[in-house]
Amino acid sequence: MPKVKKKKTARRPAAKSTGRKTPARKTKAKRKQPTMIDVVRDFWARFSRAAIAAMAVVAFIAVLLLWSGGYFGLMGERANRMAGAGIVSAGFEINRITVKGQDQTDEADLLTAVGPVIGTSLLHFDPYAARARVEDLGWVRSAAISRLWPGAVHVSIREREPAAVWQLSGALHLIDQNGALIREIGAYEYSNLPLIVGSGAPGAASDMLKALRDEPELWGRTAALIRVGDRRWNLRTKNSVDVKFPEGNITEAVKYLARLQTKIALLDRPLEYVDLRNPENFVYREKGADEETATESGLRR
Fold first, then answer.
1. For residues 282 and 274, what is the distance between their CA atoms, to the nearest angstrom?
2. pTM of the predicted model, to two decimals?
3. What CATH code is carried by the domain that includes residue 110?
4. Residue 240: inside a domain, yes or no?
5. Is the four-CA dihedral 288, 292, 297, 301 of positive or negative sign?
6. What is the extent of the structural domain holding 283?
7. Which of 155, 159, 147, 157 is nearest to 98 (CA)?
């Protein structure tokens, strides 16, 4: 049989490249239309945010009004009273007050300073505030207050020691060695203590009082201390001798006067005054003598 020749298919010539890319066809995305559920969800989200903001503003205004009206303070006090009542019912109730060191201090004044605490909660008792009130009492130098469980308050005080009587504008005040006021007294109270005269004298009298306390002989002879020009002291003895002290070195001047009394019994003489302002010598004048007859002594300090 004769061979059948296959028919060749003609090939199309390849397109020549021009170096330009064929632009892709733009596909226009279809916009999705919102459904009713989307509308409701969006509205609810916006409404929730607005509602939360409005509620926050209202809550802030309400808190501000309650605070300005004292509501929270009243609620706190009420809660505090309820807690105190619960503690009292549990057995921690203050039923006694013990005191140590009280001698001159009036008991009624002391209990008033501690406060009306009998029958109240021991847990809510403030010992620091009570101590401050107790130390405001004239006789009390220092105080310590503590809670004794389950139901007692203990008060321990140290009282001031009277050292002199301060006279000011006709009134007499009892003071301690540091010049602290204890209380106002009558004309015949504490007549054994020296009288201090002069404005501002109590605060300045501390060094003089301490120095005299160390010399019992002079302390027993002292009737008054007079502040001169708010600078120095004159001491008046019980036999009316005025001793003029220097502005400084009070302690040394008092010791010097004590030595003079021991060696020559100076203050036993009928003198008008003794002047110790000269650091090298002392000067004295006898009663009835003229000013020019004042005598200098060579007895050095």
1. 7
2. 0.63
3. 3.10.20.310
4. yes
5. positive
6. 162-296
7. 155
